[in-house]
Amino acid sequence: xxxxxxxxxxxxxxxxxxxxxxxxxxxxxxxxxxxxxxxxxxxxxxxxxxxxxxxxxxxxxxxxxxxxxxxxxxxxxxxxxxxxxxxxxxxxxxxxxxxxxxxxxxxxxxxxxxxxxxxxxxxxxxxxxxxxxxxxxxxxxxxxxxxxxxxxxxxxxxxxxxxxxxxxxxxxxxxxxxxxxxxxxxxxxxxxxxxxxxxxxxxxxxxxxxxxxxxxxxxxxxxxxxxxxxxxxxxxxxxxxxxxxxxxxxxxxxxxxxxxxxxxxxxxxxxxxxxxxxxxxxxxxxxxx
Length: 289
Known about the structure:
alpha/beta, five-stranded antiparallel β-sheet
């Protein structure tokens, strides 16, 4: 479903939910972003409070952003940007707690919004790659990813993208990411409801399919949820787990550090031990120590 967008559409400023499930980011700068609707194809410009400031074509939204950038003297507070990616069937606001924690540490944080249930991991990586290619005034990036977001990072970082010629990659943190695939996804795959809700990415997280994503080539911290018991939070999985992903499934070859925290999958990124570990890892100048 696409519609013809007026050249100069009239905009009324009003609050939005920031994108949630049907919008993908195309551009980001100091809290402002341009998003595209996955069905209609039209774009919108949101400010740092997720209020809509313009809509229409990407070019029109970018032109309007340039106006606001000059008007408000918009700037990043740091040249080191932490890019946070949410998991499957989630949205950017689920990563707000880690972002607030890192902002207090002096980092600029970009909470990526991507339509996780409508596209494949490669498609999500395409989107993030395009956004990073357009990034301005940033010298270093680190990535903090929950669940599916970690696989998106693995695919993204395997590419020789334009942004990598101007921006240094510092660290990668993967939280509850099924780096070896999630057996529970394979169990539910025969169900029509699961395939409908989870979309292409729900297939990508199955064992045997994640092997196509390159191993991380940057210092990597892996954090898993679990209870340090044989049954974890979900006895069905028959080993320690966070309710969805087992501890062993999160591990990836070449990881720099590993941490297990007592938390379930949906909130493992918010656990105090997780936040502490992220902060220490991003600040550490010698990740192998």
